Structures are given as C-alpha cells and as structure tokens.
C-alpha cells in the first residue's frame, strides 16, 4: 500500500510539517538562539565575536564527546555516573605513558613520534576496558548501573590519583597537545576544503535519500522543502567554517610561530584559526554515533531494548552483551575526551574532569534524552552541551557569581525536562 | 596570581593560546609541572613550602604537646594575631619563592630531579643549561 | 497418522523449588489449532515459554516434525519456524511498525547498514494483506490501538513463514471487531497448514477457534480433549476441578 503525495499538493499542511522538521529540535534550537541573543545584548556584542564562538566551541568538545555515549547509556535505561572519574583515569594513564612509562621502560626518548599514538592508544584501551567491566557488572551480574558507576566514580578517580601519585603531570607530548583546541588548528585553506567536502556529502545524503524513497514509491517532501533543507545545511556548515576562519591569530602567537621557524612576521601579515582538530574530532564522533544509532543493528537494538527490554530479549537480542558493548563504547569516548581535556589544559591534573558526569548527563537530558529509556538523539545531546557551555561562558562574561552560575544551570536542567514532559503529555506520547 | 600551581597551569595554557606569554604568572605549591614551566619561562614564580619540613616540625610539636610542654614555651613559637583579632601560638617556616634564578634550590633539596625539572628545556636557566 | 508438528514430552521446570510444570506432554499437528487452558499459575505460559525459547526446561524433550530439537533461546526457536505472539504484546513501543516487525532480523543493504526503506516497503506490503486499514507506518507503535499492535505482532509471524505459531491471549486487549479480525486471521493461517497453540481464558473463543484442547492445573496436565466431543461445562470442570469428562477421553 503506497500513498504518494505529489509535490505541490497537500498545501493545507503547514510549512513546518512539509519540511518534516522535528518539533523538539526546533524547540532546542529556539532555546539556544534565546541564550545567544540574551548574552549578545548583555555583552554588547562580544558574545558573538568569532573569538568567543571559537572558545565556546573548544570548551564544549570534551563534554560533548561523552554526551553522545551517555545518550546510548540512558536510552538503554542505564546511567553512568563514573564518566568524570573515568576521564581522569584515562588521562592519568595517557599522561604517565607519554612522560614516564614509554621513556623509562621502553626507551623511547621524549618527543619521539610514536609516543603520542601509543599514549592515546593506552588511554582508549583503558577507557574501553573499564567501561566493559562496568557493563559486565550491570548486564551480567545484575548490579544496578547507578551503583556500579557510583562505585566507579569513587574508585577510578582515586586509582588515577595513585597512578600519578597525586602529581600534576606535564609537560605533555607536543603532538598530543594538538588535540586540545587552540594549539591544534587547521588554518583557513584546509578548513574550507573540509567544509566544502562536508557540504557536498550532506547534499548528496539529502538527495540520495530522496531518490531511494522515490524508488520505493514512498511519499517524499516537496521539492522546495528539500531545497530549503539543503540550503540550511550548506549554510550552517560553511557559515561555521567562515566564523572560525574569521578569528585571526593574536600577534604574539604569530610571532611565536614564525620564531619557531627562525623567521620574522612579515609586515601586515595575518591569518585565521580555522577548524580546531578537537572540533573536527567531535564532528567525526557525532557522525559515527548518529550512523550507529540509525543505520546499524547495534543502534536499533539499543533503542529497542530501551523501549521494551522484555520484547527485545524475546526477539532474540542478547541484551546483556548489548549492555557490555554500550558501556565499553562509553568508556572509549571517555578516553577520547580525556585526550582532548588534557591537551587543552596542557597538563594532567588530579582534578581533571571533576563533575563532568553531571555536565554530561545534563547535556544528554537537556538534549531530549528521556531517563525512562528508549528516546534520545545524538544531535540533541550536542545541542544540550552547547546550550550549557554558552550559558556558563556567557554568565562568566557578564560577571555573574560562580555560585549563581551553577544555580542557573541547575534551573535550566529542570526547566528543560519540565517543558519536555509537558510537551509529551500534550501530544499524548509516553 | 593563581591560588595554586594547578590553576596557574590552566592560566598559562590559556595565555599561550592567545599568544600572551611573558605576562607574569604566579602559583603556589612547587608542583613538578609548575617548576618545569618556570624552567621553560612560561610561569614566573611558584611559592614552595617544603611539605617535608612542614610535616617534620608539625610532628615534633605534636609530640611535645602530648608530653605536656607549655605551647608558648616550645622552641621557635611566636605570638600571631589573626585577622579576626585572636592571638595564637605559631611557628613560622620560611616559604621559598622559586623563580628562574634559584631553580637549583629545589633540585639540591631533592624535591625534584634535574631531568623532570629540565624536561623539554634547552639553554634554560641553571641547572638546565 | 501424520507426524506431529510439535511434541513436548515429559517437560519439567521449577523455579526456586516450586514446580511450575511437572511432567507435561502435549502435541500439535499441522493445520490444527490447539487450545491450552488452565487457571493463572496453572503452568501453561511457562510451558509455552519453553517451546518459544524464553525458558529452558529442567528435563524432558521437544520434537519438531519428529526430530529432536535443541531450543535454548528465542533465536533457536525461530530457526525451527516457531513464532510467538505474547500476551504482553512484545513490541518496542518507541519504534515504528517496520522496526518492530523486523526486530532481531533486520534487512540490511550491501554495506551492512539497516535498509529501513526496504523494511518499510515490506511492512506496507504485508499489512496491506493482513489489515488494509493499517496506516500509521512511521509512528511509534505506542500510538497504535490494541488491534493494530496485535496485527503488527501477527504480521511478524506470518512474514517469517512460521510453521508453528504460539498465541498467548491474542484477543485479550482487543475490542469486538478486532477480535473477529484476529479470529479470521487464525482461520486463514490454519488453512495454510500452520499449527497454532492458543492460550486463552475465554472458553467461548476456545470452543469457536480450536480443534483440540490441552488442560492444565497446578503444573500438571489434566488431559487432552477434542473440542467437538465436549461442552463448555466439561472444559470448565477440567480447569476448575481437574476432572476429565467421562465420555471424552482421547
């Protein structure tokens, strides 16, 4: 049975319906726009400068990477309170590997090219293994994940403490520091190349989806709607690149760059930052996690199990093993975040990632992930993380006291869930 | 002026990203990473209070107090008036400001090895030269 | 005589010392609807979950078309073309009909990614046959009525060529019209040669739809009767008193 709506017909439907945009996505975008508007006015425009946008972006990366994993965890009706501590643990292993273990026990001199990849690998393996352990305890041993990861919160931060003997570890490997944000940037030319490539991929995805739907005889959006969506996608990607390119390197940084090459800065020379490597990493994570969520069995089973664990098990899904995989993935992402966090701070400190579990959970929840399970999107979590970081950063710029900043973030969290609950109730959705 | 070396490390990272090295940054605690930054020239000073000395004196005082020695008569005790106006007995140890000019002090005291202090430093201040 | 589609022999299963099923043997032939009757807690759901792979029996054996079958999980049961439609409507409420219909057996494209378009097309095709009024293909099944949800569950069984269908109170959540629709569907599947186990409390429905009935009480089999040979009162007597009607022993 196929009902084909012809483009141009059905004009009584509203524009939003024709674009088939998610109402919740629109709501979140609206909230984000409001935050930006308020702080732009309050700071007299400083909030929207390329420099501040650049800073907010790189400050968001670490929490945002973990938030994508937290979406899967919460969709599965679990929770992970240990991500901040796990980040510290992975960071400690990475820091010790690069500054002490590899140089001392494996004879690799500091600055050797293999140090960064090996240290990163060590951190990622640590995170994945600990995550899998959490998943095994929750999935196979039946310990509530709240308890497993509450224990993990205490355990891993302090294992990390012992690993570094409580010391701040640094300086870190120079290659590794490139993943932190401001130090590792792609400059305008490569940023444009990547931006244009991403735009082409996005356009191709939109149009090939349309073609496929047509070949099955499914209803498709009107042509103008596809065109509007394509334009929005292209505009968003290229606009973002343009903003990051517009943020010029400070003179002092330019001088340092040229001095490192034994040159002096030419008169009137200036160059933009472009995409930070950490942001590129986040974008890759978001794309990969979205594909997992929507296009793989692994993702489908996560959502099915969250929606009805019994039904999933009766359909032959091994929900225990699935739990292990989801927590292992969460651990892997903690390792990745640890890389970005320590590179940004250029040191491993004892308190790295403190309270990140709350920021990560809040980002996922503000982004529309339901604690009851079964519902949540990756892009929502990213928006949630951006909204929180913008709030925090904006209030800092306006000069709001730190305690009050936390009060506001807490209020926003509760408000977001409240609005979401009211919205669902009105639609009659569970 | 950062309240400790951990915070000072964050400040230095942020300043470096803005190309603003050369701005004086102070920290406290004599963290190994902070001493290394001083050798590299990105941090100006760290206030070093040798925890080993602090622990030794505190231990000695505790033993004497336990033996019933009058607090005011313990060797080195001075009267200190707190900002709140109370007068307390106190023993003052000398904090040492560590700058690029006296880095050898921490190495000689066995607080940090020369390798850790001078990691990534070429042609730096003594002893990293 | 033809080989039975299913024979469960001397099945025993206990939970923490309680004998839920205690040495029960039942069978099912092709093109036959067999009722499984008994009070709540009589053990019929437990027994049937052994066949569908949700539980494992402590002892006893299962023969499928005369051959010994090794069923340890729902996936194993599916390999023997056993499909189950649960009383609780085992659907993931947050997913739309196609995702539910193909849950655990998703169609994939040549890259190994989910082929949602093909799954949607197949769902539209089979629903057009089973329930032409079904339209909410894209919405989460939580937005569907009980009958629509049941038709998704039945479509799942039919699509994957079930030979043995287990239905656990398939009409419990349905209105009159929807019940009639499901009853008709059962007759249709029976005509195609499927064997159907029907677990139901509704004696009326059993009398109308079934060919034979196994009656259980306290984890044991009271007996097996041909529906044509008994009255409703006879069945009630078996269920409540555990007493076989004198004239109807098979």
TrEMBL record, chain A:
The chain crosses the membrane at residues 21-41, 53-76, 83-101, 113-133, 145-164, 184-207, 228-249, 269-293, 361-386, 398-419. InterPro entries: ABC_transp_permease. Its main location: membrane. It is found in: Cell membrane. It comes from the Bacteria. CDD domains: TM_PBP1_transp_AraH_like. Keywords: Cell inner membrane, Cell membrane, Membrane, Sugar transport, Transmembrane, Transmembrane helix, Transport. One of its GO terms (molecular function) is transmembrane transporter activity. It holds the Pfam family BPD_transp_2. One of its GO terms (cellular component) is plasma membrane. It is a multi-pass membrane protein. Part of the binding-protein-dependent transport system for D-xylose. Probably responsible for the translocation of the substrate across the membrane. This is Xylose transport system permease protein XylH.
Automatic annotation (TrEMBL), chain B:
Residues 2-68 form the Periplasmic binding protein domain. The keyword Transcription does not apply. Its main location: periplasm. The keyword Endoplasmic reticulum does not apply. Keywords: Signal. It comes from the Bacteria. One of its GO terms (cellular component) is outer membrane-bounded periplasmic space. It is found in: Periplasm. It holds the Pfam family Peripla_BP_4. GO terms for molecular function: carbohydrate binding. Belongs to the bacterial solute-binding protein 2 family. This is ABC-type xylose transport system, periplasmic component. It comes from Rubellimicrobium thermophilum DSM 16684.
From TrEMBL, chain C:
Residues 6-243 form the ABC transporter domain. It is found in: Cell membrane. PROSITE patterns: ABC_TRANSPORTER_2. Gene3D superfamilies: P-loop containing nucleotide triphosphate hydrolases. GO terms for cellular component: plasma membrane. It is an enzyme of class 3 (hydrolase). Its main location: membrane. SMART domains: AAA. Keywords: ATP-binding, Cell membrane, Hydrolase, Membrane, Nucleotide-binding, Repeat, Sugar transport, Translocase, Transport. The keyword Nucleotide-binding applies. One of its GO terms (molecular function) is ATP hydrolysis activity. Signal peptide: none annotated. It is a peripheral membrane protein. Its EC number is 3.6.3.17. It holds the Pfam family ABC_tran. This is Monosaccharide ABC transporter ATP-binding protein, CUT2 family.
């Amino acid at each position: 049975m196929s009902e084909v709506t012809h483009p141009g017909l059905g004009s009584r439907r509203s524009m939003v319906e024709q674009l088939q945009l998610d109402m919740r996505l629109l709501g979140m975008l609206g909230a984000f726009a409001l935050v930006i508007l308020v702080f732009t006015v309050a700071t007299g425009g400083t909030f929207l400068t390329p420099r501040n946008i650049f800073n907010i972006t790189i400050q968001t990366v670490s929490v945002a990477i973990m938030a994508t994993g937290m979406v899967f965890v919460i969709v599965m009706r679990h929770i992970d309170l240990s991500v901040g501590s796990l980040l510290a643990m992975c960071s400690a292993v990475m820091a010790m590997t690069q500054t002490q273990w590899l140089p001392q026990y494996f004879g690799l001199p500091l600055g050797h090219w293999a140090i960064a990849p090996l240290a990163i690998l060590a951190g990622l393996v640590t995170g994945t293994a600990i995550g899998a352990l959490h998943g095994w305890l929750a999935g196979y041993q039946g310990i509530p994940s709240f308890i497993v990861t509450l224990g993990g919160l205490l355990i891993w931060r302090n294992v990390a403490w012992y690993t570094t003997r409580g010391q701040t570890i640094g300086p870190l490997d120079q290659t590794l520091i490139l993943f932190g944000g401001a130090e590792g940037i792609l400059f305008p030319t490569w940023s444009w190349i990547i931006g244009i490539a991403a735009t082409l991929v996005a356009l191709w995805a939109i149009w090939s989806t349309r073609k496929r739907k047509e070949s099955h005889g499914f209803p498709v959006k009107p042509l103008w709607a596809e065109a509007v969506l394509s334009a929005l996608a292209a505009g968003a990607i290229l606009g973002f690149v343009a903003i990051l390119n517009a943020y010029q390197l400070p003179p002092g940084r330019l001088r340092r760059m040229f001095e490192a090459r034994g040159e002096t800065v030419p008169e009137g020379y200036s160059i933009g930052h472009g995409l930070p490597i950490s942001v590129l990493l986040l974008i890759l994570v978001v794309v990969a996690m979205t594909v997992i969520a929507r296009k793989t069995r692994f993702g489908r089973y996560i959502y099915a199990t969250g929606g009805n664990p019994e039904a999933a098990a009766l359909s032959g899904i091994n929900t225990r093993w699935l739990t292990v995989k989801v927590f292992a993935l969460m651990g892997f992402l903690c390792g990745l975040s640890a890389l970005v966090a320590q590179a940004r701070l250029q040191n491993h400190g004892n308190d790295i990632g403190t309270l990140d579990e709350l920021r990560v959970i809040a980002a996922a929840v503000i982004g529309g992930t339901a604690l009851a399970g079964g519902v949540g999107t990756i892009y929502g979590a990213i928006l949630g993380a951006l909204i929180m970081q913008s709030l925090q950063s904006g209030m800092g710029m306006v000069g709001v006291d730190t305690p009050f900043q936390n009060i506001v973030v807490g209020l926003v969290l509760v408000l977001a869930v409240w609005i979401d609950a009211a919205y669902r109730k009105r639609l009659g959705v569970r | 002026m950062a309240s400790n070396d951990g915070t000072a490390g964050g400040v230095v990272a942020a300043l470096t990203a803005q190309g603003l090295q050369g701005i004086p940054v102070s920290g406290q605690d004599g963290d190994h990473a902070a001493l290394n930054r001083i050798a590299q020239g990105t941090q100006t000073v760290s206030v070093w209070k040798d925890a080993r000395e602090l622990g030794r004196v505190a231990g000695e005082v505790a033993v004497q107090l336990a033996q019933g020695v009058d607090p005011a008569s313990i060797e080195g005790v001075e009267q200190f008036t707190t900002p709140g106006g109370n007068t307390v007995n106190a023993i003052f140890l000398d904090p040492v400001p560590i700058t690029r000019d006296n880095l050898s002090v921490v190495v000689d005291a066995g607080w940090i090895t020369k390798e850790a202090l001078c990691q990534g430093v070429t042609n730096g201040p003594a002893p990293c030269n | 005589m033809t080989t039975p589609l299913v024979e469960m022999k001397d099945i025993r299963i206990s939970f923490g010392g309680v004998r839920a099923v205690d040495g029960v043997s039942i069978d099912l032939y092709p093109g036959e609807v067999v009722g499984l009757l008994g009070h709540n807690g009589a053990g019929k759901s437990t027994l049937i979950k052994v066949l569908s792979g949700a539980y494992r029996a402590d002892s006893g054996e299962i023969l499928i078309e005369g051959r010994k079958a090794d069923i340890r999980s729902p996936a194993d049961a599916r390999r023997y073309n056993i499909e189950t439609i649960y009383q609780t409507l085992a659907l993931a409420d947050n997913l739309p009909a196609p995702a539910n219909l193909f849950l655990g057996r998703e169609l994939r494209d040549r890259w190994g990614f989910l082929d949602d378009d093909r799954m949607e097309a197949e769902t539209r095709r089979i629903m057009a046959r089973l329930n032409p009024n079904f339209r909410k293909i894209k919405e989460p099944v939580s937005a569907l009525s009980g009958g629509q949800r049941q038709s998704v569950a039945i479509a799942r069984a039919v699509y994957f060529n079930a030979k043995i269908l287990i239905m656990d109170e398939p009409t419990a959540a349905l209105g009159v019209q929807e019940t009639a629709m499901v009853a008709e569907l059962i007759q249709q599947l029976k005509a195609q040669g499927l064997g159907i186990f029907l677990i139901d409390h509704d004696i009326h429905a059993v009398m109308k739809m079934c060919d034979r009935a196994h009656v259980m009480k306290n984890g044991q089999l009271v007996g097996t009767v041909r529906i044509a040979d008994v009255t409703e009162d006879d069945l009630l007597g078996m269920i409540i008193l555990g007493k076989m009607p004198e004239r109807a022993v098979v």
